[in-house]
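Would you mind giving me a polypeptide sequence along with per-residue structure tokens?
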Amino acid sequence: MTKLIVYGTPLSTYVRTVRLLLESAGLDYTLKGIDIFTGENQSAEYLSKNPFG
């Protein structure tokens, strides 16, 4: 199985929920931190993955 990549800020309750689920399932993943305080979530690269930013 391909290694999963979770995009988001580690402070997000949604990101933490996903990480807890992945950990409890024993799945391997990488967390790619997105800094919402510097506007990284509004970059063209990130918006191509998540149109809602």
